[in-house]
Amino acid sequence: MTASPQERSLPLPPPRRHAGWRFSGVYGTVLASGLMAALERTGEQYTPYYDATWVLITAVTAGLAHGYAHHMTTHQPGSPGHRWRGLGRAMWQEWPMVAATLPSVALLLLAGLTGWPENGVTGVALALNTALLFGWGTLAAVRVGYRRSSALLIGLADAGIGVVVIVANALIK
Predict the structure, then answer these.
(1) What is the pTM of this model?
(2) CA distance linking residue 164 with residue 119, whole number of Å
(3) pLDDT tens digits, residue range 18-37?
(4) Contact between residue 60 and residue 101 where contact means Cβ atoms under 8 Å apart
């Protein structure tokens, strides 16, 4: 089946700009915090390389799923090639989510290399991710036009998500 000239000329959805990658960065940082808290296992054998692999695999899988869902909710008629290019673009645009988990992955790899104890790695990762959430929130707010004082409050609100993960981790463990 050949697509009509009108279907072939439909533009691909535009790439997400600054707000999109910052959103994915926040999402990935929260994902990394939740995974770090969930992977901490008191009394069991500590496996930092295994944990790093799972953080990365989960981030890639979540990115692909999010990109696919975004593509499906913005689907436009067009040729199969157009749909596949749109799907590829939607999935590729999730790279900031995966990149945002890399500090946690790096900490786990460093822990494996140095013998750093699990509770120390988890604590540092959760604190680092909370600081990154503050940065993401502040940067995003400044970039969309908020005054610095308001942007700092927004950054604090984003950091509050990290604090919630830390408190939940402490209460559950």
Answers:
(1) 0.80
(2) 18
(3) 566 677 888 899 999 999 99
(4) no
Q: How far apart are alpha carbons 120 and 42 in whole angstroms?
A: 12
The half-sphere exposure of 134 on its side-chain side, counting CA atoms within 13 A, is: 12
DSSP state letter for 86: H
Render the burial of 82-100: b for 16+ CB within 10 Å, e for the rest: bbeebbebbbebbebbbbb
Length of the chain: 173
Give the pLDDT of residue 157. Answer: 94
pLDDT at position 8 over 60: no
Q: Would you state the structure tokens that stand for residue 104, as one six-digit string?
A: 């946690």
Residue 43: pLDDT over 60? yes
